[in-house]
Amino acid sequence: MPDPDLEPISPVEAVEMYHDAMVDELAESTRKSNKHRLRAFIQFCDEEEIENLNDLTGRDLYKYRIWRREGNGDGREPIKKVTLKGQLATLRSFLKFAGEIDSVKPDLYEQLSLPAMKGGEDVSESTLDPERALDILEYLEKSQPGSRDHIIIALLWETGGRTGAIRGLDLQDLDLDGDHPRFSGPAVHFVHRPETGTPLKNQKSGTRWNRISEKTAAFIEDYIEFHRPDVTDDHGRDPLLTSEYGRVAGNTYRRTLYRVTRPCWRGEECPHDRDLDECEATHLDHASKCPSARSPHDVRSGRVTYYRREDVPRKIVQERLNASEDILDRHYDRRSNREQAEQRSDFLPDV
């Protein structure tokens, strides 16, 4: 029997209320990720004929965990532990909210345990090696100077910014002449604007100026003058990076990175011994299937690794990339243990 203190509600309606409530608390990219993750929970409720969320029990949550871990019971491959942890963490957040609106028992979320992660299991080892990043930039400077692809890679690399921060740049956010009183050179201004579709991950605390090189500033000027479609976005703003339809979509950045990080794209030999005439990754829609293809996140981790190799102070890296020291160490620094030991020895007296 459901608790009489609870108010009947369908799983679908409760999830929709959760999404509405999170608008003021989470970045748009996080909300989209949560929405995707909770679709599986709604599917589970349909299969288990749970029409009233009041009826949800701890045993149901255990069954959901197994069902999700094994591929939703539809014959698909089991999902990775780190993926499962993310899925269940989102569900816990939803259940805590559901308890606050009298849809489930207030402490039900505590009955959904998260899988324990061994050291490093929740950290991706993928990165764009700094040397590769610089080679790709050099190639773009010679073959496609001032192109949109060139500016995307240059800004991701130089600023270490997240895709959402780069995407949110408007023409008014540029100081390409270095006239800003706080800087002695060109810079870009990352601004949190959730009301017009370009929030920053860390919201207002993510608003900041980042220096860029004079060379990159000159290439941006060329892009604006010769390559940028002169359009506004849906909110009447003037985006820096545009398509003929307006502000460039977030997925464009990922597709761009997949494309330009393939060695064959620059005319190099395939390091994976593939026949280029038969390799599906040579087609733009399947570029991500190249083992060498990298994502925007990998550019960010490569930049952190570059900073650490150059002994840039941690505080400077934290402020420039708008991330905590723990996050930088766990998710972005890709120096080998030997590299880190060698750099530490530079600051230690001889034994």
Automatic annotation (TrEMBL):
Family annotation (Pfam families): Phage_int_SAM_1
GO biological process, one term: DNA recombination
Region of interest (Disordered), residue spans: 332-351
Chain ranges of the Core-binding (CB) domain: 9-99
Keywords assigned: DNA integration, DNA recombination, DNA-binding
SUPFAM superfamilies the record matches: DNA breaking-rejoining enzymes
Organism: Halomicrobium mukohataei (strain ATCC 700874 / DSM 12286 / JCM 9738 / NCIMB 13541) (Haloarcula mukohataei)
Domain Tyr recombinase as annotated: residue spans: 123-345
Molecular function terms from GO: DNA binding
The name this protein goes by in its record: Integrase family protein
